[in-house]
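If your schedule permits, I should be very grateful for your opinion on a structural question. Please examine both parts with care and let me know of anything in them that strikes you as inconsistent. The record follows directly beneath this note:
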Amino acid sequence: MKFFIIPIFAPHLGCPHQCIFCNQRSISGVSNPTTTPNLLEKTVKLYLKTWGKKEDFKTQIAFYGGSFTGLDLKIQESLLSKAHDFINRGEVSSIRISTRPDYIDSEIVCLLKDYGVDTIELGVQSMADRVLMLSRRGHTSSDVEMAVETIKGYDLELGLQIMPGLPGDTPDLIVNTVDRIIKMRPDFVRIYPTLVIKDTPLEELYLRGNFLPMTLYEAVNICKKALLRFKIADIPVIRLGLQSTPELERQGTIIAGPYHPSFRHLVESAIFLEMGERLIEKSPLYDERLTFRVTPEDYSYFCGQKNGNIAKLKERYKKKDIKVIREISVKKGSLELITDSSTFCIDHRELNS
């Protein structure tokens, strides 16, 4: 099912404190944190007027940026009631909210479901309690597990967000977080490598020399492992890296860290580069020219940005020419190498072995 999302940003609303990494005004690109029923109505009507009703899409009003269930109950109900009016008129299918794991219980989820919420996203960030403590999250991994169990009990769609590279994090802890997330079987996942954003406690820690963010190379490699694990588990990763916004791109907003506007492309390309390497090592090394086949959807991932993967393969294996053919019969996530004598195939699932 494809979604048409109408975003309602409420930076910091409902949050009990500021986590070490967080400046929602910069991340979301919204400087005014005030969200009212009237503003919500105007925003939704504008989206619907501009884009119309999208056939074959599920239209959702989505509350982003804060911990929705941390809001005063009257505020929650006023916003949900206004959003639910659009559901009653058939203009919107449902509502999604994002919140903290420790702000979920049966009473809250029952209220949300009554108002038409059918997707809840939890900011998990890590399943390592020391990482959560150092990041001033104010919840534990046990809170995550309890919240997930509660949400699943109401048959709602569940999304979990993680942030590799927080203070105290290590590659092993990140992989452990991914594996524990997989065991909880969310419907989808978002992965946001940790960035040092201006005017956050993490910036102060970084400037004092007490925090070192991942390099872009390190982030791509650890997120490659995470993405492969989620792919193999058939859990969609619907976002990889922060979405580019004018505020985020403004000079001085990102102080340090592995930001790239096409971060997912880098990670997917790293997967296909390894697939290409494995196929070449299976093939007769005397072939100076190689021909690969890949589905059109994966063509750009295999070639890499500015054909970077092709250049690396040619240089590494001393090949004069590498030809890449778009072929719809090739399975998504797979790669084929055609030689005079045979065809070699690899699927991304083989990389985890």
